[in-house]
Design goal:
single chain; 331 residues; alpha/beta; six-stranded mixed beta sheet; D-Maltodextrin-Binding Protein, domain 2
Length: 331
């Protein structure tokens, strides 16, 4: 028995125990007519396995996502279990070998899963019930007098983190494309490049004058979009900063699709439709109120239908960076 099989069985056994513990809770309000009688469930796996890459300790992930696991069990009226893998490569291999039928991927991991395992985009996460996409912003201060990206040559720039899509990879590709240089030449195009560590720190480095410009995600909690202009939220921790009114967005990337839940492409259409219906019901399921709040979206947390072409901007960015998806995931 392979190490993967032993690990999968162990994690699935733990997930099953969690589901049995919670079986007494009534979730009738989450029932959905997702498996029409005339089609039945022909071809459905005996047990549907949902793979996720841990953002926290595996035990904490199991606790956090237990309500979602219960919800899908009831929504599908079919055995459904959560599998917490070690990394994206584990999830991709699990999907390729049939050990996971659906899995959650970041944008760059998804295009790799699509290539390696035939993963098919199904549902995309919504931010605050608003949109399945966001952007990377190049921010600076009005008083510096920059009119476009070309004015940043020889200046000091703050990226967020080497692994951040909106805080590093997309803005790097944007600068490389606009300036007609390679990804490797970007650092030398600036006088200095720093990694702030998080989006808030990147914003603060610009407001404080530590850097001339920086990268920031459009979904950062400090931002609000009003009348065609990005501004600092009046209730954010940065609103009282002495240079808050000097904040401006100099450039924006293409749309970046959010995290996606992808399925094995050869699953029955009836199952894909049932899964999508359940995802779309997450935003209003009464049993998931606390879960939505914990995920940071409150009543706005939910999902919409996704398709593979939604992730073409990610492929374009990988090409602009001159890096394969595998290399991007190793950043």
């Amino acid at each position: 028995m392979s190490r993967w099989t032993r690990r999968a069985r162990l994690v699935l056994a733990i997930s099953a125990a969690l589901a049995i513990t919670a079986c007494g809770e009534s979730l009738d309000s989450d029932n959905r007519n997702v498996a029409p009688a005339e089609t039945g469930k022909e071809g459905w796996p005996e047990k549907i396995v949902y793979g996720m890459t841990p953002t926290d300790e595996a035990t904490d992930m199991a606790r956090r996502y237990d309500p979602l696991e219960k919800y899908f069990n009831k929504c599908l009226d079919h055995p459904f279990e959560l599998f917490v893998g070690t990394d994206y490569n584990t999830m991709i291999e699990a999907m390729r070998t049939g050990n996971a039928h659906i899995a959650r991927f970041g944008p760059f991991a998804y295009i790799l899963a699509h290539e390696r395992a035939g993963a098919e985009a199904l549902a995309v996460a919504l931010e605050g019930g608003d949109s399945p996409i966001y952007r990377s912003l190049i921010i600076t201060r009005k008083s510096y007098g920059f009119d476009d990206l070309a004015d940043l040559e020889g200046k000091k720039f703050a990226f967020v983190d080497p692994t951040s899509a909106s805080g590093h990879l997309f803005p790097r590709a944007l600068i490389a494309n606009e300036m007609g240089i390679s990804s490797d030449e970007v650092d030398d195009w600036f006088s200095d490049v720093v990694y702030a560590g998080n989006h808030e720190a990147s914003l603060l480095s610009v407001l404080n004058g530590d850097t001339d410009a920086g990268a920031l995600a459009s979904i950062a909690t400090a931002l609000v979009y009003e009348n065609g202009t990005w501004k600092l939220r009046p209730d954010s921790e940065f609103a009282d900063h002495e240079n808050a009114d000097d904040f401006m967005v100099l450039a924006e990337s293409e749309d970046i699709p959010n995290t996606v839940d992808a399925v094995q492409k050869d699953l029955p259409d009836s199952l894909k439709k049932a899964l999508l219906a359940c995802f779309e019901g997450v935003a209003e399921a009464p049993s998931l109120a606390d879960f939505r709040e914990e995920m940071g979206g409150g009543e706005g947390y939910g999902f919409a239908a996704a398709k593979d072409s939604d992730y073409d901007p990610v492929r374009k960015t990988a090409k602009a960076l001159g890096m394969s998806p595998e290399e991007l995931l190793e950043q």
